[in-house]
Amino acid sequence: MRYLILISSFVCLAASAAAQGTLRAPDSKSPKQKAPQQTVTNGALSLGVTGRRGGEYLVGYIGMPVYTYSRDEGTQSTCYGDCALRWPPYIVGAKDDVGPKAGVDGKVGTITRSDGNLQLTYNGRPLYFFSGDKDDKPPAGHKVNGLWLLVRP
Question: Which pTM was predicted?
Fold first, then answer.
């Protein structure tokens, strides 16, 4: 009986810690951790537009919505560590074609993250994907914690 109580307590404690980890503010103090790499399809990394008229938003080369983070400082990304696991930066290579598709009127560029990776930008703002987005589902990351916004063309 004592072991059952101890095991139950441990499980509850671990679940509580895990839940708190998902609700924490992003870890912006871990610049040495490499961001997750994205899988490139067809060698093109350009931004595209999707959504109904009046509600269009930008999508990355994997067909998923892209977001900006309001805590980024100017053109510099502040999303590293746990933050970058939940919000993978839109990482590109130095020789990749990042030209936008039709309908994307803003300026597409790159910045060098403090971890050495190149991150795609739109109108100077670093771009991210959201790990909670699913294929064929509406974007789930818009206005998360009041800090993440879908990118509009």
Answer: 0.71
